[in-house]
């Protein structure tokens, strides 16, 4: 046998708290469901531990109410599980047919949640009762332990969504449009009485023809299921019908009721409970008859004649009967007893029954149980035993001990009546085996159901997570798309800028070519100039040094280029002249120096004109240009010209 799981003390404390505040005892409800419900509330109230949640329950009575409401799962619909309703229609039509005209048809929907089931069965019954509207002949009781659910049921107004499982025809016939959806027609509402009732602890409704208690037992443990079934047995009229939920295969129900449609969990109350003690006559054939002993009758006397008759009755009775006096001595041992135990009445008469050690009669039965009956503490006692007969199957007997009363009702001793229950016992054993198997199958089914439910919940959670991940991905995607769009725009802009740059580039290349050509012409011109031409950058470094400069100033272009002019030692340009040039250029002024005497590179002296011009464009100093023109010949020609003019004058 599977050992019970250890008690979860925090869960117990939570259930205890609920019991204190709401007087509702969930301790015999299935733990797995309760745990899941508590976990949900913990998640909703952001409590990470059971201890934290318990503390919340301590300070907030509203949370206790919410928890109770959440633990009483009220999932329901109109005509839930349609194929069951097809069977129920048949059951109700049958009841209506068999009903006496004045007899009220009484139906109880126990655990009816928000009333859909109670109204559904009222509609079915109204339809079975035939044309015209149901009157006082129909009474439906709808009960639930949840007050809010019952209050909702009483209003009898349902949304179109809640009525989805109700056919169009029934909707049209039994409902009228109302604000918020549809209202149950008053003819049906009149027949349904709603009330708060705990089917475990409150008094059951009585004299019921049909009880619907569907999808309630799945939440209860086996013990509570048995208790509730016993109450339903009591509440039902003889031949009354009980319908449980599709997933509620409860072995005990089949013990108490006759299954009518087991797959749909429909049972009938028959007389089987009362039949448990029905006598059986198999004992008669258990062993060979032995010579019966008798008390000598006196047939002449009328009382003796009666005694003889009684004796014959007793001896003809198939059940073994033994009577003892107040001291336990045997005063009667009928023929069936003689046959069963193989002893004659004469043999056992007067002897104490307890001392005979008759097989199948236990010491407990003969001593303790018999003493209880004898002392009046028990009306009757029952003991089971087995007899092993030579060459035959063992016989199981059930012995009933009752007081033996005299005519004046005084206690005269005890009467032991044995029944052969071999067949019953083997049937019971078979039934027990079948029940155990059913129980096991049920347990397996329940546990796989729970696993499936848990897996389902996990799937739901995963699904929710996936959905949220999906939403995030969609958001990211949208962001990426917009970034992409921006990138495309930027790309287009870049492409157009690129095209513009290309055009500019081409223009620049063209300009460069022009510039190159210009530069080439310029350089050629500069090189060809007869004046020595020197170009300086803003820092005084030489960037141009033409052929005339080479000739007049005595340095080759290669020697001069890149040098700082002011640091060079050039014979034609004295240090003082260089200093003056530098001063003027630093002050951005032009220097023109005529008839400068200078030393030629090969040693002679000459005259020259020097011009130093700062190169300034838009107030930016680009450097300077220095022109050095040899005027030696010009000067001598001018001199000669002057002398010739003088001579001509004289
Ligand atoms: C899942 S609903 C079933 C509703 C309806 N019978 C059906 O099958 O559609 C279970 C109902 O049983 C009720 N319930 C649970 N324990 C109960 C109890 N001890 N007494 C009465 N009703 C109870 C709950 O409040 C809930 O409304």
TrEMBL record:
Domain PAS intervals: 306-354, 525-588
UniProt KW Transcription regulation keyword: no
Its EC number(s): 2.1.1.80
Annotated region (Disordered), positions in chain: 455-478
Top-level lineage group: Bacteria
Reaction(s) catalysed by this chain's protein: L-glutamyl-[protein] + S-adenosyl-L-methionine = [protein]-L-glutamate 5-O-methyl ester + S-adenosyl-L-homocysteine
InterPro entries: Bact_Chemotaxis_MeTrfase, CheR_C, CheR_MeTrfase, CheR_N, CheR_N_sf, PAS, PAS-like_dom_sf, PAS_4
NCBIfam families per the UniProt record, alphabetical: sensory_box
Protein name as catalogued: protein-glutamate O-methyltransferase
The organism of origin for this protein: Stigmatella ashevillensis
């Amino acid at each position: 046998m599977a050992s019970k799981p250890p008690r979860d003390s925090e869960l117990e404390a939570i259930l205890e708290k609920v019991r204190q505040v709401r007087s509702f005892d969930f301790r015999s409800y299935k733990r797995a469901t309760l745990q899941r419900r508590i976990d949900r509330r913990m998640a909703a109230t952001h409590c990470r531990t059971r201890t934290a949640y318990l503390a919340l329950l301590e300070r907030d009575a509203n949370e206790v109410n919410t928890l109770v409401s959440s633990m009483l799962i009220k999932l329901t619909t109109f005509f839930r599980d349609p194929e069951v309703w097809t069977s129920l229609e048949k059951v109700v039509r049958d009841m209506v047919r068999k009903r006496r005209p004045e007899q009220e048809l009484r139906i109880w929907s126990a655990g009816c949640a928000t009333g859909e089931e109670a109204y559904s069965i009222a509609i079915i019954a109204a339809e079975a009762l035939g044309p015209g509207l149901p009157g006082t002949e129909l009474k439906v009781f709808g009960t639930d332990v949840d007050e809010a659910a019952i209050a909702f049921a009483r209003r009898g107004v349902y949304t179109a969504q809640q009525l989805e499982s109700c056919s169009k025809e029934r909707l049209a016939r039994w409902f009228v449009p109302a604000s918020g959806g549809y209202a149950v027609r008053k003819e049906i509402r009149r027949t349904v009485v709603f009330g708060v009732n705990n089917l475990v602890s409150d008094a059951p409704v009585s004299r019921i023809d049909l009880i619907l208690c569907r999808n309630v037992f799945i939440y209860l443990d086996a013990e509570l299921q048995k208790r509730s079934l016993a109450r339903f047995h009591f509440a039902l009229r003889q031949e009354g019908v009980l319908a449980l939920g599709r997933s509620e295969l409860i072995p005990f129900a089949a013990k108490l009721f006759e299954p009518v449609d087991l797959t749909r969990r429909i049972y009938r109350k028959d007389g089987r409970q009362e039949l448990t003690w029905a006598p059986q006559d198999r004992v008669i054939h258990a062993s060979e008859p032995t010579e019966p002993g008798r008390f000598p009758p006196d047939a002449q006397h009328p009382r003796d004649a009666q005694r003889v008759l009684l004796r014959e009755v007793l001896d003809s009775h198939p059940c073994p009967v033994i009577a003892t006096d107040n001291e336990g001595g045997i005063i009667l041992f009928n023929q069936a007893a003689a046959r069963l135990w193989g002893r004659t009445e004469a043999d056992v008469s007067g002897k104490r029954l307890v001392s005979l050690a008759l097989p199948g009669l236990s010491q407990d039965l003969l001593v303790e149980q018999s003493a209880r009956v004898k002392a009046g503490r028990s009306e009757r006692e029952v003991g089971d035993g087995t007899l092993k007969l030579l060459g035959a199957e063992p016989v199981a007997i059930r012995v009933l001990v009752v007081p033996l009363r005299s005519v004046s009702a005084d206690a005269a001793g005890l009467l032991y009546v044995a029944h052969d229950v071999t067949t019953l016992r083997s049937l019971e054993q078979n039934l027990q085996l079948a029940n155990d198997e059913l129980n096991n199958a049920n347990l397996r089914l329940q546990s796989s159901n729970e696993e499936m439910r848990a897996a389902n919940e996990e799937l739901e959670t995963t699904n929710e997570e996936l959905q949220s991940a999906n939403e995030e991905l969609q958001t990211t995607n949208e962001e990426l798309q917009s970034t992409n769009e921006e990138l495309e725009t930027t790309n287009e802009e870049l492409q157009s800028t690129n095209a513009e740059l290309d055009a500019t580039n081409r223009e620049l290349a063209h300009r460069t070519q022009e510039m190159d050509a210009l530069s080439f012409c310029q350089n050629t011109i500069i090189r060809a100039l007869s004046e020595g031409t020197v170009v300086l950058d803003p820092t005084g470094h030489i960037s141009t040094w033409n052929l005339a400069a080479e000739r007049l100033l005595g340095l080759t272009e290669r020697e001069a280029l890149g040098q700082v002019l002011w640091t060079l030692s050039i014979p034609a340009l004295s240090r003082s002249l260089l200093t003056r040039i530098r001063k003027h250029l630093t002050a951005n002024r032009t220097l023109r120096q005529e008839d400068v005497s200078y030393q030629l590179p090969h040693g002679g002296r000459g005259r020259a004109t020097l011009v130093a011009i700062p190169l300034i464009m838009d107030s930016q100093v680009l450097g300077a240009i220095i022109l050095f023109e040899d005027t030696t010949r010009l000067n001598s020609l001018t001199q000669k010209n002057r002398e010739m003019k003088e001579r001509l004058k004289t």
